[in-house]
Amino acid sequence: MARRALWLFFLLCLALPAWGDNEVSFQAGTRAFEQGDYQAAARYFRLAVQQEPTDALSHLWLGMALQRSGQPDQARRSLAEAIRLGGNSQVAEHAREALEALNRARPAQQEAPSQTSSSWRHVGAVQGLLGEDWHVRSTRYCRVWARNADRAYVREFVESLDQAYEINAAFMGTRTATPIDFYCFSLESPGHRQPRFAGLGPTRYLGLAVGKDTCLLNLGDWRTSRHLEPWEMTRVACHELNHMFLHGLNLRSSSGNLTWFAEALAHSIEDRVLPASRQRTLETIRLALRGYTSVDEDWRAMVAERDHDDYEQYRTYGVLLASITSFLQARYGQDAVPRILRAARESTLEEGFQAALGRDVPTLHREWKAFYGIL
Ligand SMILES: [Zn+2]
Question: How remote is the CA of residue 187 from the centroid of ligand 1, in Å?
Answer without folding.
Answer: 19
